[in-house]
Amino acid sequence: MAQEIERKFLVISDTWKNNVSRRIHYRQGYLCGNAHSSIRVRVSDDAAHLNIKSATPGVRREEFEYPVPLHEAQRMLSVLCEGPLIEKTRHFVEHRGHTWEVDVFEGQNQGLVVAEIELSRDDETFERPDWIGEEVSHDLRYYNTSLVRHPYTRW
Q1: InterPro entries, per this entry (predicted)?
Q2: Which end of the chain is less enclosed by CB atoms within 10 A, N or C?
Q3: 3-state secondary structure the chain
Q4: Based on the number of CB atoms within 10 Å of its own CB, is 113 exposed (0-12), middle (13-18) or buried (19 or more)?
Q5: Which residue segment(s) compose the domain that 67 sits in?
Q6: d(C-alpha 111, C-alpha 152), whole Å
């Protein structure tokens, strides 16, 4: 069992682009979800995983992740997942001892850019970069499971 402590923010400028250390393109879809959890399949540039995450709103959630064969994950995305799929490029940005993950969404969620920071404790302090705006950790509209049902371009 693993717990994830993650805070999510809107991105208000492009200055983060100057400090990207690496990037990964993701395609992901949801196999199912209910009031307790969601199950997604995610394909990156060269790997695939099944992810099970608790549906608890907020910054702390249960999360389990398992590798799956890439060809099987691609088939799950095309046959089993509710659309539209989540497509995004994740950019990793180091800032004052923390790694920020900046997600630039594509497709039905184009125009949305959010940054996430994973923490080791709920009360861990961190410095916000100047390109970080409003915190949306508790706003369910920004959860990927919600973006499938209510894409950003339709808000």
Answers
A1: CYTH-like_dom_sf, CYTH_domain, NeuTTM/CthTTM-like
A2: N
A3: CEEEEEEEEEECCCHHHHHEEEEEEEEEEEEEECCCEEEEEEECCCCEEEEEEECCCCCEEEEEEEECCHHHHHHHHHHCCCCCCEEEEEEEEEECCEEEEEEEECHHHCCCEEEEEECCCCCCCCCCCCCEEEECCCCHHHCHHHHHHCCHHHC
A4: buried
A5: 2-154
A6: 8
Taking the whole predicted model, whether its pTM rises above 0.85 is answered as yes
Q: CATH number of the domain that 62 lies in?
A: 2.40.320.10
Q: Do 93 and 18 form a contact (C-beta atoms < 8 A)?
A: no
Number of domains, the chain: 1
The b-or-e profile of 38-55 (16+ CB within 10 A means b, else e) is bebbbbeeeebebbebee
- Tell me the per-residue pLDDT of 13-37, one tens digit each, with 9 for 90 and over: 999 999 999 999 999 999 988 888 9
Q: Hey, which residues are catalytic here?
A: 30
